[in-house]
Amino acid sequence: MAGEGDSEPGKSFKLLGFLDVKNVPCARESVLYGSLGSLVMGLGHFVATSRVRRSCDVAVGGFICTMLGYWFYCRYNLAQQRIRQRMLKEGMKNRILFEGSYLDPGKEQTGSERSDS
Amino acid sequence: MANHSQFGFQDASSPIMEELVEFHDHALMTALAICSLVLYLLTLMLTEKLSSSTVDAQEIELVWTILPAIVLIMLALPSLQILYMMDEINEPDLTLKAIGHQWYWTYEYTDFKDLTFDSYMTPTADLPLGHFRLLEVDHRVVVPMESPVRVIVTADDVLHSWAVPSLGVKTDAIPGRLNQTSFIASRPGVFYGQCSEICGANHSFMPIVVESAPLANFESWSSLLSS
């Protein structure tokens, strides 16, 4: 499973020693957006309340929620894309198979004009 | 096949293996989130002064009951979905029997013709240049690509296991019992596996090689072999 735009496909970068963020789709973006969300929420809370300890808690919570939230969103879109790719592949295969025959969907409009093939 | 020092899965060559890899990624992401939280809590515990002023903790108890339940549901739902997907009966186009012996496999294609052959590992001394050591066999299992294939696995003597990681297949071969598995090879290629149940001195030397080819190629191969 190659990462997108990966200059060194053989290399991997494992976060905490087990999650390969380079080669797992959506992982890199999830962690980056999670970090950004954590920073924004933590800093925002600190600026609003000046409470360090609680802001750290909010930052960690924000990291987890943003990371998981983007992960589910990205994986859902990826799954939809894969289904569309499969349907397209199937459609192209059927188009090639049935082109010119009576099963060709493109010939439905002219079907009434033909009495026999 | 796996590269040296490979830690992760091989590239998926069947729809079920694709689903398994996606579920594995999902489980690892969940594990990352949990580990991050635990690391943070550990750091807090190590830097805070101890105090015994807490007498009532209804909120935290609610949180640490509800959150793990949510995590378990997040893991269980896709897991069960894949589990049931693996057991779907999908009207296979081809049925193949794999029989484990010490220390080789026998394959039988008895749907259309009586085609049976043994599959022994190619010894290293006889290996052509560029072929894979301890993985190549003299007769590969050829299957048509993009067709559901049913494999009935059994053994003749001791326990073996017929496994091809790239196809997401691993089935125990038990003497006196027929175990069934099925797969669809999504693309043409050669997929390697090894016996996965300890079966004696040469347990590591009875590999499995599945070659998936277009239907026309499969038909000409089976005609060639049975003539």
TrEMBL record, chain A:
InterPro entries: Cox20 (IPR022533). GO terms for cellular component: mitochondrial inner membrane. Keywords: Membrane, Mitochondrion, Mitochondrion inner membrane, Transmembrane, Transmembrane helix. Its main location: mitochondrion. It is found in: Mitochondrion inner membrane. Pfam families: Cox20. The chain crosses the membrane at residues 30-48, 55-73. GO terms for biological process: mitochondrial respiratory chain complex IV assembly. Belongs to the COX20 family. This is Cytochrome c oxidase assembly protein COX20, mitochondrial. It comes from Gymnorhina tibicen (Australian magpie).
UniProtKB/TrEMBL annotation, chain B:
Binds a copper A center. Residues 1-90 form the Cytochrome oxidase subunit II transmembrane region profile domain. The gene is COX2. GO terms for cellular component: mitochondrial inner membrane. InterPro entries: CcO_II, CcO_II-like_C, CcO_II_C, Copper_CuA, Cupredoxin, Cyt_c_oxidase_su2, Cyt_c_oxidase_su2_TM_dom, Cyt_c_oxidase_su2_TM_sf. Component of the cytochrome c oxidase, the last enzyme in the mitochondrial electron transport chain which drives oxidative phosphorylation. The respiratory chain contains 3 multisubunit complexes succinate dehydrogenase (complex II, CII), ubiquinol-cytochrome c oxidoreductase (cytochrome b-c1 complex, complex III, CIII) and cytochrome c oxidase (complex IV, CIV), that cooperate to transfer electrons derived from NADH and succinate to molecular oxygen, creating an electrochemical gradient over the inner membrane that drives transmembrane transport and the ATP synthase. Belongs to the cytochrome c oxidase subunit 2 family. It catalyses: 4 Fe(II)-[cytochrome c] + O2 + 8 H(+)(in) = 4 Fe(III)-[cytochrome c] + 2 H2O + 4 H(+)(out). It comes from Gymnorhina tibicen (Australian magpie). Pfam families: COX2, COX2_TM. This is Cytochrome c oxidase subunit 2. The chain crosses the membrane at residues 27-46, 66-86. The keyword Signal does not apply.
